Amino acid sequence: MAAIVGRMLRNLPRELGRLVRAETKRHERLRDRLLTAISTTLVVYAIGTVVIYFLERHGPKTEVTTVGDAAFFTAVQLLTISSQLKNPVTAGGRVVDVILEAYALVVVTSLAGIFASFFHRGEAES
Predict the structure, then answer these.
(1) Gap between the Cα atoms of 116 and 111, Å rounded
(2) Backbone phi, psi, residue 90, to 5°
(3) What tens digit of pLDDT does each residue of 52-87 get?
(4) Does residue 21 belong to any structural domain of this protein?
(5) Does the reported pTM lie above 0.90?
(6) Mean pLDDT (the chain, rounded)
């Protein structure tokens, strides 16, 4: 197992170059899937920021009072499974929070599957 991981790490710079150029169909599929995940996440981030801002800005004892606060809150929810940030205070904010966390879990597990599939197929083709 260590040998496989070592080989993958040694080949990483070359594989990244092949990925950017979409040198093979495998690389093109991986690149397209990664771009889809990134662009979808950016859209979810933008929408989540706006929705959290409008739902939370006037809530009692809220920590989200500006668009910057909302952007920070949304980014943290998308990047972490659990954070030390105060939970949203409105019912709508809590719903959006759960949706953001569920989305983040789906993306992380999907990316793991995408990479596992890419490397598994790569080993089979070698």
Answers:
(1) 8
(2) -95, 155
(3) 999 999 988 888 999 999 999 999 999 887 667 788
(4) no
(5) no
(6) 87
How far apart (Å, rounded) are the C-alpha atoms in residues 71 and 63?
12
Kindly give, in sequence order, each residue whose CB lies less than 8 Å from that of residue 65, ignoring residues fewer than 6 positions away. Answer: 57
Has residue 96 been placed in a domain?
A: yes
Cα–Cα distance between 8 and 27 in angstroms, integer? 15
52: CATH: 1.10.287.70
* Number of domain units in the chain: 1
